[in-house]
Amino acid sequence: MNENLPSDLPPPLIVSRLDCDRLDTLLDNAQSAGLDTDGLRRELDRADIVEPAQMPPDVITMNSVIRFVDENSGAEREVTLVYPRDADGSAERVSILAPVGSALLGLRVGARIAWPLPGGRTTQLRVLAVPYQPEAAGDRHR
């Protein structure tokens, strides 16, 4: 992350072409089902799209394992970013259609995002690591 950017600018995003193609299909189906997909659509529209083989290993992609910290509380979490069909309701699997899932896609290690909480509060999430990324592991056709 470029520390010289103003903090109110969203961090840059990188998304693989394969993820983008699959997410476009998912969004079309979700929109037909009446789900709110505007947040994810906005994120994809501003992302730089790269081929899976060119994906930097420190970027969150679909099916990546992500470790992040809530900078306000210091609480760390490790989650896997999944397609809705793979979300099982556990805290360890976050659907891309969940607001935090949409917000994490395409971020690099070190990136920070403001995250709204109930009651009008906000917290800062910072990406600490991507312990598993399918592209870096050679799993480009998942």
The CATH class is Alpha Beta
Radius of gyration: 14 Å
Going across the major beta sheet, what is the strand order? 5-4-3-7-6
**Fraction of residues in helices?**
10-25%
Q: What name is given to the CATH topology?
A: Chitinase A, domain 3
Low-confidence stretches: 1-6
Q: Architecture in CATH?
A: Roll
Number of helices in the DSSP assignment? 3
- Average pLDDT confidence is 87
Let me know the number of strands.
7
Largest sheet: 5 strands, mixed
List SSEs in N-to-C order.
EHHEEEEHEE
Number of domains: 1
CATH superfamily membership, which one? Transcription elongation factor, GreA/GreB, C-terminal domain
Strand % is 25-35%
Morphology: globular
N-to-C CA distance: 27 Å
Structural class: alpha/beta
Protein name: Nucleoside diphosphate kinase regulator
Organism: Tahibacter soli
Keywords: Kinase, Transferase
Pfam families: GreA_GreB (PF01272), Rnk_N (PF14760)
Question: Can I get a quick summary?
Answer:
The chain is built from 3 helices and 7 strands. The protein has helices at 17-32, 38-46, 99-104, and strands spanning 14-16, 48-50, 65-70, 76-82, 93-95, 112-116, 122-132.
